[in-house]
Amino acid sequence: xxxxxxxxxxxxxxxxxxxxxxxxxxxxxxxxxxxxxxxxxxxxxxxxxxxxxxxxxxxxxxxxxxxxxxxxxxxxxxxxxxxxxxxxxxxxxxxxxxxxxxxxxxxxxxxxxxxxxxxxxxxxxxxxxxxxxxxxxxxxxxxxxxxxxxxxxxxxxxxxxxxxxxxxxxxxxxxxxxxxxxxxxxxxxxxxxxxxxxxxxxxxxxxxxxxxxxxxxxxxxxxxxxxxxxxxxxxxxxxxxxx
Length: 243
What we know:
This protein is an alpha+beta fold.
């Protein structure tokens, strides 16, 4: 016996989609004390954030080996008295694996303050260390990198920047900044931190290495969230810049 599959019409599909959107959201199984912020993105921004959530916002910023914050596109140093608003709610965290020139990287990333839970490293695969490429130290290097993306807005110009923390010392510095933001959220939930980009550092225990510069974010104040940009992460992404 031949079974005929009923193919819905376009009108039926649209009606079903409309009905699905009208359904109430599923109940939250666990209570939460977080304050739900309204989603002010446009439909285009929501779509782009869904298909390309790991985009760099604005211009890339890097921290050089000699202890300077620079804009990556022209190598110009950033003034240590320039003030930046930390758009902390846009902080992206997770894992990235670069696949070589011309290939898109693999990512397991999401917004730290958007409910993303970073997966454990042992769930990502690529566990055979004998198959890893050697790093700068000549030893096999894990292809999956832990990265944190911090979005900064220049207070004077309004221009947006992204700093990517990949090293352990850089992630620690960003972690201190986010701890400051967490404290600020409890006392001033509608404000972001203001910082200046500075150089810290430490004396390495190996005397041959000497002084090791590290990025630092000096808190200098705070700024209302409603006076800052709400960027879309689907613009201006350059997968060729690993940092």
